[in-house]
Specification:
Organism: Pseudoneobacillus rhizosphaerae
Radius of gyration: 25 Å
Shape: globular
InterPro entries: PhoD-like_sf
Helix content: 25-40%
Protein name: PhoD-like phosphatase metallophosphatase domain-containing protein
Length: 682
């Protein structure tokens, strides 16, 4: 397998958590360096004033050529300036070698490599304590249809780079930053080769699953299109697109680097890692279910044509992705970015049900892949959100695992590492934005209920367990404690980031719940085909959410979400039996790049939604929740209820209440105004 020297900067810099007391900058390198940061106060006349600071940089070596750094930068005195532009540079020292960002052409004006906007000398960020502007969204698949709307975010900041009133200060990525279960055919060999070079060797997966030593798995594991059976039967995963699913940590790491930085793409082209379909076939790099046996020739020809069509379409989509990565790298270098996982960051349907979680945990290879995915999430996304959440014992176990991985001794630390990640309960975090934002982990803190729930389809009736609570009682306790520790106070505005919308589009959720979900009674495995995990599918969990927020009593409650591959805006007035009223603004933006409503079925769904939006626009929908936690539409609630709500779907600039094209939300909050709009590629 190809071995080569990787570029010094693999990815970054990325601005992560910022607050008056400190700022964090993340970067990944292929070699060990001592890193210091310089900060500059940029005045209105574009003069630069050095801010005396101290840098404390933590380093994790994750492979022979993979070092991830998180630089904590504190002012030597006082606090960092707020509501003013702050520029930064990074300085790298190793023995007698001294480099900074300019050494890599990242500060060169008009260079495609530059991460600097306009006439500025350095990449910049803002710490706002008032009048915030937040970009938010989810779901970005590299080979998906349409343009990447993160490019629109880069263009917006480029235009407003010194106009702080109109420049966004934070970027919230609300899940599915990668699609680990849906990798493009032309990209898998590149990921595999780069992953091996990052770590230094391939993982010995045969220790976990001995059947990988047998035909055809010993070869299909390394081939394009060769992993579907392995993921379904050896890992117990349920994704229908897992023919190229990521497995090893090096593969997850390589995919993150390729998703956020152009440098490894240039390297891959330089070493001819991207192959044409015919080259891949000639080199036996593609797995075909049907063999060349005489009685299967027709089937293989049909399969080959189908895979070739998919391969060429994905190849074309990846070309535009690579071109956009220079702008996306610049965006990440110039805005404080917070990231939370959803299922595709690990695998589709992750923790969807108790059976799913139990089956995967009891499959050694499945348990291992989930832990690898979580390790990569922590290294590339989670670490920079609220670094204090990860104590020395957490870092020690992670360091030992990566050390053993690099040296081929995975089994020695495997159990501690797996248990740490499967049981870790501190993925929630609170940002220091203004207002503060509570990010909710709706994947690992679920509660599965087992009391029977009757389901009816025509004349068939059967009992099934209900959909899970997306956050358990213990999970809520952790979230509440984090909110208190953050300094947030009652009667202050609060943003809640929930990957899954608390208030989705009722038409879709009700249609699935009323007409699709009941197919379970006749044996259709519908739970894994369509994700039944909206908040309202578990009335008790939905109610606990509302009741807890009511006890917090924010002056404004704004919920930001993604996940559902459409954008919407909903206002809800919730009234409890004791007369307390809770006003909620729900804003959803998705997908950043992964339009899903395509084909005949997608067109039909779009037409239904457009028709439904006309009937719902500017009209209220009244509901109540009864003592059994059933949520019922009504014009007049009964005398006894837990809560009622009045929903209003708000329209976008074009007049529709829903947008299914690629989009990115932009939320502007002032002392007396909330404004939400979408950035789109028209």
């Amino acid at each position: 397998m190809n071995s080569f020297q990787l570029p010094t900067i693999l990815c970054g810099p990325i601005v992560r958590r910022v607050e008056p007391e400190k700022a964090y900058i993340w970067i990944a390198l292929c070699n060990p360096y001592h890193i210091e940061a310089s900060l500059y106060k940029i005045n209105s006349n574009l003069s630069y004033q050095l801010i005396p600071t101290k840098t404390d940089t933590k380093t994790i070596q994750m492979g022979n050529q993979l070092y991830v750094y998180l630089a904590e930068i504190r002012p030597s005195e006082g606090t960092l300036p707020t509501n003013i532009l702050i520029g930064y540079n990074l300085h790298f020292r190793r023995d007698s070698e001294y480099l900074d960002l300019s050494s890599f052409n990242l500060l060169t004006p008009n260079s495609p490599q530059s991460i600097v906007y306009g006439q500025l000398k350095y990449p910049t960020f803002i710490i706002k304590n008032t009048d915030t502007q937040i970009l938010y969204g989810s779901c970005r698949k590299l080979h998906s249809e349409g343009e990447d709307t993160l490019v629109q975010a880069d263009s917006l900041i480029e235009k407003q780079c010194i106009n702080l009133d109109n420049r966004p200060d934070s970027l919230f990525l609300l899940g599915d930053q990668i699609y680990a279960d849906d990798i493009a055919d032309p990209l898998l060999p590149v990921i595999s080769i780069i992953g091996k070079n990052l770590i230094g060797q391939k993982e010995n997966l045969h220790q976990l699953e001995h059947r990988l030593n047998q035909a055809p798995f010993q070869t299909s594991l390394l081939q394009i299109n060769g992993r579907q059976y392995i993921m379904e039967n050896f890992c117990q995963f349920t994704s229908t697109h897992s023919h190229n699913h990521l497995i090893e940590f090096g593969e997850y790491a390589a995919h993150y680097l390729l998703s956020w930085s152009p440098d490894l793409w240039d390297l891959a082209h330089e070493h001819n890692l991207f192959k044409s379909f015919d080259e891949a076939v000639t080199n036996n790099e593609i797995y075909f279910v049907f063999t060349t046996e005489e009685h299967q020739i027709k089937e293989q020809l049909f399969e080959k044509r189908k895979i070739k069509k998919r391969y060429l379409e994905q190849q074309e989509a990846l070309t535009s992705t690579q071109q956009n990565l220079y702008k996306i790298r610049r965006l990440f270098a110039n805005i404080s970015t917070y990231m939370l996982f959803d299922d595709h960051d690990i695998t589709d349907d992750w923790n969807l049900s108790f059976d799913w979680k139990n089956n995967v945990f009891n499959a050694p290879l499945g348990r291992h892949v989930v832990a690898n995915g979580l390790s990569a999430y922590w290294a590339f996304q989670g670490w920079g959100n609220q670094p204090d959440s990860f104590d020395s014992s957490f870092l020690k176990i992670m360091r030992k695992y990566f050390h053993s991985l690099t040296n081929g001794e995975v089994t020695h630390y495997l159990e501690k590492w797996v248990n740490l990640l499967w049981n870790f309960n501190r993925w929630h975090f609170v940002t220091s934005t203004s207002p503060k934002s509570l990010f909710l982990d709706t994947r690992t803190q679920r509660e599965y209920e087992f009391h029977p729930q009757p389901v009816k389809w025509i004349k068939h009736i059967k009992e099934h367990p209900p959909s899970p609570k997306l956050i358990s009682e213990h999970g809520w306790q952790i979230a509440s404690q984090l909110l208190i520790e953050s300094g947030w106070r009652r009667n202050s505005p609060l943003i809640i980031a929930s990957p899954t919308p608390v208030y989705g589009l009722g038409l879709i959720e009700s249609f699935l719940n009323d007409y699709i979900y009941p197919l379970r009674v006749v044996g259709v495995e519908i739970q894994n085909k369509i994700d039944f995990e909206a908040w309202k599918y578990n009335g008790r969990g939905f109610t606990e959410f509302l009741q807890l927020v009511a006890t917090w009593n924010p002056s404004q409650c704004i919920i930001l979400s993604g996940d559902v591959h459409y954008a919407s805006a909903v206002k809800s007035e919730v009234t409890f039996l004791d007369g307390q009223v809770l006003d909620i603004h729900q804003y959803t933006s998705s997908p950043i790049k992964n339009m899903s409503f395509s084909g005949v079925g997608g067109l039909l769904m779009k037409l239904i939604m457009k028709w439904n939006s006309l009937s719902r626009k500017n009209k209220g929908i009244k509901r109540y929740c009864d003592s059994s936690y059933h949520i019922v539409k009504t014009t007049i609630p009964p005398a006894s209820y837990i809560w009622t709500d009045n929903l209003k779907y708000c329209s976008f600039e074009e007049g529709s209440i829903i947008e299914t094209n690629n989009n990115l939300g932009l939320l502007s909050i002032t002392s007396n105004l909330i404004n939400n709009k979408l950035l789109e590629n028209k």
